[in-house]
Amino acid sequence: MFITFEGIENCGKSTQSKLLYEWLLDNGYSVILTREPGGTPSAEEIRDFLLKNREEHFPPFSEVCLYIAARGFHVKNLIKPELSKGNVVICDRFSDSTIAYQGYGRGLPIDLIKRMDEQAREGIKPDITFLIDIPVEESFKRLKEKEKDRIESESVEFHEKVRNGFLAIAKEEPERVKVIDGIKPIEEIFKEILTVVMEKLQCP
Asked: Which helix (H) or strand (E) covers residue 180, if one does?
């Protein structure tokens, strides 16, 4: 099973993906936890380049090409091999983030992004995606205490577009994308996620 977690910055998806990974591991499942951009040595190098603050303008098309390139390394060298072994793969961000950030956020053609992404994914698609949804104001409130990377440093308007993008994706694919209220307590969110995952795992 391939499970992904999505959402705007500091929504809590990394916390929830780690909780799910630890629960499945403790209960005897073969599971790996990974992230995007990143997950393999080459993809992590691309991540560092993408997130570094820089004075030079970062063209949106160059940005999406790098995200897609990182995904290609990730799918080919980690995600696909693990799924072929029958393992559960949990990924903190995947294709939906590229559509939300570079499509809805940057304004690049979504059809173009989907065609590029399709090549990088090599036919794999998440079985379940959890969209941890919070207001942008809450995201910025949580960001106050930390040093921001290049994406986190974007404007409120940009992050509003990204959030709306995620919600549009969820509306298009309600069977796959489960929207979770990220304002709820961590334990309550996790119970909701675990219920969905266990139902899927027990299906023949």
From this structure: strand 177-181
| Each residue's pLDDT tens digit, 120-134 | 999 999 999 999 999
Strand partners, 5: 92, 130
- Identify the CATH assignment for 2-201 out of 3.40.50.300, 3.40.50.720, 2.60.40.10, 3.90.420.10: 3.40.50.300
First to last CA, the chain: 12
**Residue 141: C-alpha distances to residues 10, 76, 136, 137, 164 (Å):** 9, 37, 9, 6, 19
Q: Is the pLDDT of residue 166 over 90?
A: yes
Residues in the chain: 204
> Cα separation of 15 and 7, whole Å?
12
